[in-house]
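Hi team, as promised in this morning's meeting, here are the two structures we talked about. I've kept the exact order from the run log so nobody has to guess. The first one is mostly here for context; it's the second one we should focus on when we meet again. Sequence first, then the predicted structure tokens.
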Amino acid sequence: MTSLAKVPCTIVTGFLGAGKTTLVRHVLENAGGRRLAVIVNEFGDIGIDGEILRSCGIESCPEERIVELSNGCICCTVADDFVPALRRLLDHPAPPEHIVIETSGLALPKPLVQAFNWPEIASRVTVDGVVAVVDGAAVAAGRFADDPDAVGRQRAQDTALDHDNPLEEVYEDQLLCADLVVLNKADLMSVQQRREVTGEIGRVVSGSVKIVEVENGRVSPTVLLGLGVAAEDDIANRFSHHDAETEHDHDDFESFVIDLRRFEAPQTLVEKIAEAAAKHDILRVKGFVEISGKPMRLLIQGVGSRIQHRFDRAWQKDENRRSRLVVIGQKGLDTAAIRNLIQD
């Protein structure tokens, strides 16, 4: 009977700033009447991505079916956060026909896939597929692998190798668990760079994994949804650098919040963030800011020194126009210097 069919879930993974939220928003906007729900996980204290999705006003996915989990990385809080959130969606009088799960940029997807075998939910949901979103321009710039061939040779000699580059471990774990790779921001790469990055990804993933080149996360839902992989039944074939660990943490990374004053112009803030990113090892910046004389809220999103901004929606009548940024980087950021630079 149809009522007993498992609800398919698509896991969208990918490193910080790869474009996961943009991709999920595109799926919601082009759902074709399909009843969707979204679980979005944040690394940091402010729920920027969930707020971006909730502000869309998309009929196929109303606010009550957008669930935000910000109590730590989703792969570490399965029992406390993820499973209860999933059950609440499934128990809704009009349950979703498909659930899209956007992990934080630092999540390892394999533990999340394994959670679908938990007795509480195993008979009700299935992993339709794992989609890894890759920031092609960042990879082309060597952001995640200083020397992939050398790393490969070292791994072959020592399977217990503990990487010195935690960014690369996270990036590769996400690829190794993927059923589909979305090579995003293709418009920011040359033809040669696309070829090289595609080849680099191809050396990591299984030969059966397709790589799709896109711009601005624009992938048709017919491509992303309905893969029918049942990834939870194939967990043994999804390698992870952390397979030998009984648990893991994210102590290699940290995040903090900067409260800002109202700015006169977006470009002034963009220049300050770009300068801070150039001087410090900042991986990701995102937040909302008030601009003088503007009735709309400014959304800021940055990957390294590449900063994007746009007015995403009008401030609500009684809304506190609070300007705040989340800054994410590797452990050891000079938070005082970054605050002073951006707040000045």
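And here is the second protein, the one for discussion:
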Amino acid sequence: MKRSDLCVSRMLIVFSSVVITAALMMNSACLPEPYSVGQPDSLLSEYLLVWDMVDQGYGGFCIRTQVDWDAVYSEHREDAMAAESWDELRDVVLTMLGELEDVQLSLIDPGGEEQTAWDPEFVNWDLTVWQQYMGRWSLPESLVEYAFNPLQMTQDSVGYGYISDLGSIFNIMIFFSMTTSIEGCSHLIIDLRMLSEGIEGNAQMAVGRFVADRELSYWRSIRNGPGRLDMSELNAVYAIKNGSWQFTNPVFLLVGRGTRGVGEQLTLLLASQDHVVLVGDTTAGSSGPANTLYLVNGWSVRIPAMVVYLPAETPVLGAGISPDIYVETTEADFLAGIDPVLDRALELVSE
């Protein structure tokens, strides 16, 4: 294929996608030989489109320097060419994305369900078991975006709250209003084991209710150019007071492998405070919140452009955030209706 034909074919790929960011179109350059894109709207063109979106927008290349992204393209190209349906191509794309070992790189099906490219190990939270605990604690059993309540069996001295979504529907005024129910509690348990969705700014607002002192929480860097290592300088992010009052009594923060993306950012914001203790398992170790770009047939791909670093400037990607108190949890526990992390949190508040 001539280079001029390749450029024309590549533009057809871009326009065949439902939504492609303006930055992607401006920064894209013609791929060097031997890349062949196939016919517009073909399965192969979708494979290249996903590869190129990651190439142009993923921030984690600065950490995953051992991954040769060009070689990854070549390695899986034949399988993409052999795919006869989107379902077959989906498996190829997930395998390709999995080479970067970042749980935030994922596909979203037309029904909104996430299909991850890489499994970050056992998640220490189970919805069914969690609902059983809520029932025993006389709390609502349906999982909503966030909820905070005092626990009646502790004479309301201990509060339990969780955050499952910090997305666009998050409302800081409603959040602050809900947290007034735990203002008089002597201890608080905050559950972030299910938090992966949301916006960084919402995490920065929400943490303000629990800040005693302004503290450095993490560093962040953003992909800012067409080169895979084109990243902004590290920018400091601080936990800052917000709202008319702050809860500064002991807080036990529950985390695990299901805590990722914005969940890890909120974890770092809360962990900067001396009155907060992390309980559970190491977090997912993802690069940061992901942007959503659209493919064909209602599918989309999620690509994080941000990389988050601990205050010591070590990356969260691939390492995660370690708990202060590790609690072992197994599938057998969940099958028996036991949540060791919730049980340990209740033990801690009574010590």
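Starting points for discussion:
The chain has two domains: 3-116, 127-290+304-350.
The two ends are 71 Å apart (CA to CA).
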